[in-house]
Amino acid sequence: MNPANESPLFVAEEVLCAYPISTLYDSCPRYLFYALLLATCVTRWTGWLADVFLGAAATYAGTAAIQSFILVSSIPKHYPSQPVTIPFVSDNTTLWDRFPALVTGVDEIDISPASLELDADAVLSIVVTGYLVFLPLQCWSRTFANDRIGYILFSLWNILMLAGSICSLVYWPTLKKTPSQYAFCFPELPPSSSSTNDGWGSWARTSTWNSSVWSIFQNATLFDQIDDICFYPCFNTTQILRQPTSLQAAVSAENRFTKRHRFWDKVIYSQRYIYSLVALSVALNFFMLLIKLLPYRSRVPSSRVWHIWQERKNILDGFKRDFRTAIHATQHGREHMMDETRKRLSSSKLAPGLFTLRALGSWAKLTVDVVILIALVFSIVTSPLTVIAFVAWIEYYIHNDGPSAEKPQQVGQWSPLVSIAFLMVSAAILKLKYRVAPRQEIDHDIEELREKLNRLESLRDKERVP
Fold first, then answer.
1. Membrane-spanning regions, if any (predicted)?
2. What does each C-alpha distance from 7 to 3, 94, 105, 184 come to in angstroms?
3. How does DSSP classify residue 102?
4. Are 248 and 199 in contact (CB under 8 A)?
5. Phi/psi of residue 254, each to 5°?
């Protein structure tokens, strides 16, 4: 305590040290990404327009996936904590007004400098949302399944999104394991709500953190050398892909980690519900994708979601025929199915007939078709709900990370929208190519198309040769 005014020499306040979300993943580009995914689903039958939306969304998500690989390969290590003695401050102190996250009632705290990478929240939102949309598109959309090379490219992109989602889900829980961080300040000089690292001087770190803190506040010359009114040990840390000067420290009372005592926050932040919903959606779509890849002819047009309702009568009649066929094969065992004049077997002989190959095949086909129909209906219902629930949950989570680094009117936020707008205008103009092209250009393109047609026909003929 300072005997002159009975105030402590310095105080400790809990802070959140984090690298804010990068401009690339800030609110406007993220919302634009969600809009592009929605536009892709709505315009998937238009061809060129869907390609513009899908290409822009896929390249943006691909960047996030690459960053997830880098983040998971360089998870920061937390060094063993060191004790730092601090002046004792009672719980009923008047310093609460100036230091809302003041440490009271103790004379020692543990220091282990660390920082959060908030890009992990944004990257998780992008890659998982992208995968939850791209995978059903591959299962449902006939447009994206007609072109084989396009289907292969779409499959490779889904693999990239899956790998990015796995890496993000592995890295994301490490944020919760970040130890508590503290700022050391003079009682008369409270910090602002947020401070930025202006550069770390190696002189500030002596043999131990305890000696460093006490040396700075006992020596006015050393205190004047720090670039802030408080001393932040976390400014000594670094993160891959980040400039150290972009690290920020905010008062802990204002961040998400201090709000979890509320019931609604426990529901919002409970990952098991969202993870279970995501896992269910992915499993259903994986099953539908597997059915499409296997050489199995189902009565359910799994690749034509909207045709199910139109073909409902034919599907139901097919199920009835399959059921009657299975019953008939079970009752007659190995007897020919068309022999209706044969006497029915007694009830004691029905059981062996149930295990014939014909009966097992009939029941298996009926069962698989029913499972496909149920899985498809559940997939149609759960996939959109999963996307909506996950986006709402992760965006609420990101909202508690703090305000955006940039406002919507700044160029870093609206430039992606302008780029996509120019891309759409260019694609629309190219669609008018033959409406404005001269006759010579049209004749030239016709000749090129004929040459291409001849090459394709020769390739087709070579495939027919045994």
1. 31-50, 57-75, 122-140, 152-172, 273-294, 370-394, 414-432
2. 7, 10, 15, 14
3. B
4. no
5. -105, 0
How far apart CA 154 and CA 131 sit, in angstroms, is 11
Q: Contact 70/240 with Cβ under 8 angstroms?
A: yes
CB atoms near residue 374 (< 10 Å): 12
Nearest to 325 by CA among 373, 273, 360: 360
Give φ, ψ of 279 to 5 degrees.
-65, -40
In the block, tokens 């998500």 appear at 61
Q: What confidence tens digit (pLDDT) does each residue in 319-359 have?
A: 777 777 777 666 655 444 444 444 444 444 444 444 466 66
pLDDT, tens only, 18-42 = 999 988 898 889 999 999 999 988 8
For the record, the structure tokens of 52 come out as 């513009």
- The string of DSSP letters for 256-305 reads GGG-TTSHHHHHHH-HHHHHHHHHHHHHHHHHHHHHHHSS---SS-TT-T
Report how far residue 126's alpha carbon sits from residue 145's, in angstroms, rounded to the nearest whole number: 24
- Round the CA-based radius of gyration of the chain to a whole number and report it: 32
